[in-house]
Amino acid sequence: MLQRGTPKLDKDGKPVRNAKGKIVYEPYKIRVFNTINFQKSMHFNPFAYIHSEKDILKIVTTLIANTKGEGKAGDDFWVKAETLLYTALIGYIYYEAPTNEQNFATLVEMLNAMEVREDDESFKNAVDLLFDALEQKDPDHFALRQYKKYKLAAGKTAKSILISCASRLAPFDIREVREITMYDELDLDMLGDERTALFLIMSDTDGTFAFLISLIYSILFNRLCERADDVYGGRLPVHVRCLIDEAANIGQIPNLERLMATIRSREISACLVLQAQSQLKALYKDNMDTIIGNCDASLFLGGKEETTLKSWNSLLGKETIDLYNTSVTKGNQESHGQNFQKLGKDLMSVDELAVMDGGKCLLQIRGVRPFLSRKYDITKHPNYKLLSDYNEKNAFDIEKFLSTRMPMRPGELYRNYEVTAEDLEPQTT
């Protein structure tokens, strides 16, 4: 459906037709990043989006925030020491390494080459020699300044830092992960310039590679905001809508509470889909209320999680009801009394929300009273017949889409080139 696209409109908003009278469609560019099956994925390289020193710091911050694992956080010293080392090495790779080596594979190789000898602190490993040469060339280099701070650590401490770094980057020891981050095909910078559909696919049971998805979102928001400000005067020409399903399982997006408040002015919007509000609380702690407060619309599809129910109970407010009481007093003289009152009652109590009809939902939009609605039947949508749910023939073959093999047709002429090792030698050297 997205490959076909939507009807192209003229200046009056009417569909454009070709010479045969058929409607002309504008297709979407399809981008897919799949952490479940790397064979069905395009390549993503965070280094391709580094344009300044601050971008290096953003990548390191996102990487550390989403690879800290479960359980109690460790000593802050080790995190800061790792940050220094990552920043130094990534800075060196970005400024000094050739383009084809600017990736996580090179970062892992540099870490592997950093031998430390506790009994001989004067020993210099291969990476030390690289930075010594860099100091001769540029004593004020950004990467060198960070590396010198890391080198203040004693031999035993430095060894512990390296072990911690190796543990954090363990996913990059997997050949498929190194290969998928070797270069970039997602073109995240251009999502606000061209009609593009980007699918980010991750496992709902295993969060090992969730940090890659978080890296994409962090880079996406920052690069699009910068492009909107620098190139388009504050607003992107094509609205970018992020439908973030299972938002609590993709990992933490740094500064999301601030981004949710600022991206809307750049023609970017984010829809966070959660099973329960407590998931957001667990991930973003005290920033949960700020994130929810920056969402102009809230949709409740049903559930029984207590935090969510209480939040919606207070959000819906109260309604006014009439209370009518009658009383009869019997004695020597019988008396009758009547009492009329207007009282406030919860529009929907917590228990009513918990047993809400599964076919209904609640929608609350800023500036509008909340209302109860029936859920939309997707089978009634005019484009439903274009989905694979309607017809299996509509299924999208991602492997065929990503294949670089050219189909050979009988009778066609092709130009054949023969390249020898000698021809490639000048390029490789």
What is the structure about, briefly put?
The chain has 429 residues and is α/β, with parallel strands linked by helices.
Description of the structure:
- With 429 residues, the chain is α/β, with parallel strands linked by helices.
- It contains 15 helices and 11 strands.
- A 3-stranded antiparallel sheet has the order 7-10-11, covered by helices on one side. Strands 1-2 form a two-stranded antiparallel sheet. Strands 3-4 form a two-stranded parallel sheet.
- The model has no long low-confidence stretch (mean pLDDT 87).
Give the SSE layout.
Elements: E1 6-7, E2 25-26, E3 29-34, H1 53-65, H2 76-96, H3 104-112, H4 126-137, H5 142-150, H6 155-168, H7 175-180, E4 196-201, H8 210-230, E5 240-244, H9 256-262, E6 268-272, H10 277-284, H11 288-293, E7 297-300, H12 306-316, E8 318-329, E9 335-346, H13 350-354, E10 360-365, E11 371-374, H14 398-402, H15 421-428
Parallel strand pairs: 3-4, 5-6
Antiparallel strand pairs: 1-2, 7-10, 8-9, 10-11
Helix pairs in contact: 1-2, 1-8, 2-5, 2-6
